[in-house]
Amino acid sequence: MTTDNSLSRAAAPWVGKVLVESLLIVLSILLALAVDSWREGRQNARRAEQALTSFEAEIRQNKAELEGIIPYHRRIQKEIGELSAAGEIRRFEDLRKIQGFQGFRPPFLRDTAWRTAVATGTFEHLDYKTAQALSLLYTLQERVVTTSSPTYLFGPTSLADENIPSLMRAVVFYLGDVTGGDKELQKVYEQVLGYLEKRPGRPR
User: Fold this and answer.
1) What is the DSSP string of 119-176?
2) Which of the four pLDDT bands, split at 50, 70 and 90, describes residue 202?
């Protein structure tokens, strides 16, 4: 019995030392994981902010491009509608009656920031509301660009003068879609820019 007690007393300091060292090792591992998680969170937040800064700059650029083309779209919509209704466009040459006519010009709208964010997985680090707003904007922008392209109006035989009356009716509807899309996209640009400008942590 005395020998067992002596062994227990001798082992107690060693067991305590092992427990303390084990606890310190566990704490060190947990601290290292916490530091790595914090560092990764900071890096992700930095990437997200860089992406949002790129989005804001690109949206401003696209908004300026769109607003530069809107007056032209509205003017040719009005003039073509009036000339077509009056029966004054009977040949393609008659389109010259539209002052300053430069064809059906779709706006050049960029989507580099969107494609980059998708390719790099940056959307995973954006809050849901922001990602939803940007997704809506670029989906609408793609639709406006597609709708603004006049290629579907002109088939292989549609450029003949005898087709001009039916083609002009299609053009009037086409320009109605174009100007409506322009107006809707302009409004969404303003809304999303307003939201991005108020985001926490935005560089001033």
Assistant:
1) HHTGGGGS-HHHHHHHHHHHHHHHHHHHHH-GGGG--SSTTSGGGHHHHHHHHHHHHH
2) confident
